[in-house]
UniProtKB/TrEMBL annotation:
Coiled coil start-end: 9-50, 76-166
Keywords: Coiled coil
The protein's name in its UniProt record: Uncharacterized protein
Length: 189
């Protein structure tokens, strides 16, 4: 009977040692996960700050681009109106030149002056068309930049969602380990 009791005692001691080792391992894993969760929370906080700053900067830049786009659109309209006016003036001058060809030698000097004005207007018209093309190209560039900024914002929001999911997963793991630890302590007692 004494030998049986000693064997049972030794078995209980071994089981207690095993439980203590498992409890120690669980505590180490729990501490490791808590440290990882803390690091992730710190990274998440920093990411949220960076994301907020990025969104503010993006909103500011988008607003600035929109204002520039409005100004450029106004310039384009003004230049188009000027182009129409110049084209109308050019047509009128051409008609006047055709009529003046039938007039005497004294009016020939007037015709020469009108031709010079016509050349000047054609140059202005060509310059105006070149300016319109340049402004249109600049507008397209601004639109592309705006789309790139909106894409960056969308990617930042996706990254934020992924970190939130990872945080929830780690939190659930820590919660599960904590419940398992409580069960182990109850078994000890």
């Amino acid at each position: 009977l004494e030998k049986i009791a000693e064997t049972y005692y030794q078995s209980s001691q071994n089981e207690l040692v095993n439980l203590q080792q498992k409890n120690s391992q669980t505590e180490e894993e729990n501490l490791k996960l808590e440290n990882e969760l803390f690091d992730l929370q710190q990274r998440n906080f920093k990411f949220e700050q960076n994301n907020q700053n990025l969104r503010l900067n993006l909103a500011k830049q988008i607003k600035e681009f929109a204002e520039k786009e409005d100004i450029l659109q106004t310039h384009i309209i003004d230049l188009q109106n000027e182009k129409q006016n110049l084209a109308s003036n050019l047509t009128n001058l051409t008609e006047q030149l055709e009529q003046n060809k039938l007039i005497n030698q004294q009016v020939q000097e007037q015709i020469s002056q009108l031709k010079q004005e016509e050349t000047t207007l054609q140059e202005k018209l060509a310059q105006t068309e070149a300016n319109i093309q340049e402004l249109k190209s600049h507008k397209e560039s601004l639109t592309e930049q705006k789309e790139q900024l909106e894409n960056k914002l969308s990617q930042s929001q996706v990254n934020y969602g992924q970190i939130e999911q990872e945080k929830i997963r780690l939190h659930n793991m820590v919660k599960g380990l904590s419940q398992e630890q409580k069960l182990t302590i109850k078994l000890k007692t």
